[in-house]
Amino acid sequence: MVRLVIKGCEFDPAQVKDVVYGDSFRMELDKAMELADAGVEFWAAGPDGAMARVTLGENEYGERILKTEAIAYAANHLGEIVAPPVVRRPYRAETHIPARMDFAVAA
Question: How many CA atoms lie within 13 Å of 74's alpha carbon, on the beta-carbon side?
Answer without folding.
Answer: 28
